[in-house]
Amino acid sequence: MPVPRLDLSLVPRPSRVSPRPGRFVLGRDTTVRTLPGAEPAAALLRTLIGRDTRLPLHASADGRIVLALDPELEGLGDEGYGLTVSPQALLLRAAGPTGLLRGVQTIRQLLPPEALSGGVPGTDTWELPCAEISDVPAYPWRGAMLDVARHFQPVEYLHRYVDLMALHKLNTLHLHLTDDQGWRMPVDAYPRLTGVGARRARSQDGPTGPDGARFDAVPHSGSYTKEELRALVRHAASLGVEVVPEIEMPGHARAALAAYPELGNDPSRELDVWTHWGVCDTVFGVHEEVFDFCRTVLDEVMDVFPSRHIHIGGDECPTTEWERSPAARARAAAEGLPDARALHGWFLGRVGAHLVERGRVPLGWAVTGSELPLDFTVMTWHEPTHARTAVERGHRVVAAHHRATYLDYAQSGDPGEPVAQPGAPVPLRTVHDHEPAPAAWPEEQRALVLGTQAHVWTEYARTPDEIEYLSYPRLCALADRSWSGGRGDWPGFVERLRHHTARLDALGVPYRPLDARPSPAASAGTARIRP
Ligand code: TNX
Q: Which of 5, 136, 140, 222 is buried deepest, with most CB atoms within 10 A?
């Protein structure tokens, strides 16, 4: 077990840590004093740290653990907090309730790693090193996107995914709920979306080769209930994580078209839920019925997900079908658009306006966002320079270009990597080096960058273990950099991560080992997903 070094072992790294002499001893008689407004943090402390240490952590007016809201810490924003650990007391303060939730995760990381595996039977005292910590995140958006459309994941796993995110102070789970290959959220007004769209007959097996694609013979299906999704939202909120749903349009919509062919460009065409990976040509039509559909679906989505942002996709939408369709071309002309290609931005703008009317912020994938109204927050996924182009125009941006944030690519060039999307690897260091808003940019442009997020697309990652292997430790790197901002220092991160992996071990995360050899010469199997 590595010896924890306070200054090195917290992930993400706090803004300021000063080690102090002594230890705070947590035992059966340790109680918690909760000041008004700190109740959610007290509940989380009891759930997480009570479970970790198997201690009761009862409430009392003279508790040695003190949780308090403190307006004096307003300068630390919604998520900042101050933590003072002395031999006599542990004092956690923040201006708002979310800051306290972040501080609870820091307390957890100050415990010995073995506590995270549910405690050691018979152990009823735990020591925390004394310290003074003042901590504030660099970016308000620190997220992870999980694609549950390509491969459905059980809702229990989404709870665990959120738990692990929260340990790393990540605050946004973006759920990719629909795509060509599956629709996972029930919509009362359109029951066939999950009735038909949640099941595909088979799946492409491996990358498309010179002879085309190969397929397995295994049907794949799954969808959530609204109650499961609401419970996920509540669980995430208790950890200070917001769940942002995504409903893809106008492309990546084949599962919806399989359920409701009348929403397509050619209403008489029957389509299956797509079994290939890649970019599908079939897209929504542009007749009014389609917009009624999108608005109705999004109303139900907003009812389940209270998030400020609602993602409506927008990526990889071939316009060939519209260009060939007399009805779509006529619609483009009637709307005064230059051509059928311009229907893409027009479509998203109309649907986005519906969200804006309801007080939400539309979020879309974008190359640079030039086709989208400025009230869209854009996720620039393509080139690193595109985030800058988008903020120059005035968009708010989640800067997440694929060469640094797509965790479906392999973590190394080792042919023994057990799971990966074809393409060049995205190594741990590249993720850590990603700076959403470089210091050299003008301040007003940097202010428009909300942050960044990682993306776990799941064409090739089928199981929770595979998802977790792709996610860790790269999500630690993204969390570290997006919390610490320009203060990212790679050697320091690696050093802290060497200690942090003991926490991942305790939590049973099948992460890629740090010393797995990065070169193609490495023998297959150095980086195994444990069963
Ligand atoms: C691009 S760019 C996609 C996904 C794929 C992913 C594979 C974007 C938002 N979409 O549909 O799953 O690449 O890496």
A: 136
Domains of the chain (ranges, CATH numbers): 5-135 (3.30.379.10), 142-526 (3.20.20.80)
Each residue's pLDDT tens digit in the chain (531 positions)? 444 555 559 999 999 999 999 999 999 999 999 999 999 999 999 999 999 999 999 999 999 999 999 999 999 999 999 999 999 999 999 999 999 999 999 999 999 999 998 877 788 899 999 999 999 999 999 999 999 999 999 999 999 999 999 999 999 999 999 999 999 999 999 999 999 999 999 999 999 999 999 999 999 999 999 999 999 999 999 999 999 999 999 999 999 999 999 999 999 999 999 999 999 999 999 999 999 999 999 999 999 999 999 999 999 999 999 999 999 999 999 999 999 999 999 999 999 999 999 999 999 999 888 899 999 999 999 999 999 999 999 999 999 999 999 999 999 999 889 888 999 999 999 999 999 999 999 999 999 999 999 999 999 999 999 999 999 999 999 999 999 997 778 999 999 999 999 999 999 999 999 987 654 433 333 334 443
Which of ligand 1's atoms lies nearest the C-alpha of 457? 12
Q: Quick one: three-class SS letters along 183-200?
A: ECCCCCCCCHHHHCCCEE
CA–CA distances in Å: residue 21 to residues 63, 316, 480: 22, 56, 26
Locate the ligand 1 atom nearest the alpha carbon of residue 315 and give its number.
9
Q: DSSP assignment of 163-226, as one string?
A: HHHHHTT--EEEEE-EETTEE-S--TT-THHHHTTTEES--B-SS-BTTB--B-S--EE----H
Identify the burial level of 531 via C-beta atoms within 10 angstroms of its C-beta, where 0-12 means exposed, 13-18 middle and 19 or more buried: exposed
Counting atoms of ligand 1 from 1, which one is nearest the CA of 313?
9
Is 404 in contact with 384 (CB distance < 8 Å)?
yes
Bridge-partner residues for 82, per DSSP?
93, 134
Q: Which amino acid is at 462?
A: R
Other Cβ atoms within 10 Å of 100 Cβ, number: 29
Q: From the CA atom positions of the chain, what is the Rg in Å?
A: 24
User: Residues near ligand 1 with C-beta < 6 Å?
Assistant: 315-316, 365, 381, 406, 408, 421, 457, 459
Instruction: Give the distance (Å) from ligand 1 centre to CA of residue 383.
Output: 13
Tokens of 531: 């069963």
Is residue 278 within 8 Å of residue 208, measured between CB atoms? yes
pTM: 0.96
**Residue 84, strand partner residues:** 91, 132
> What is the whole-number distance in angstroms between the Cα of residue 204 and the centre of ligand 1?
16
CA of 228 to the centre of ligand 1 (A): 26
CA distance 192 to 438: 46
Helix axes 474-484, 155-167, angle to 10 degrees: 50
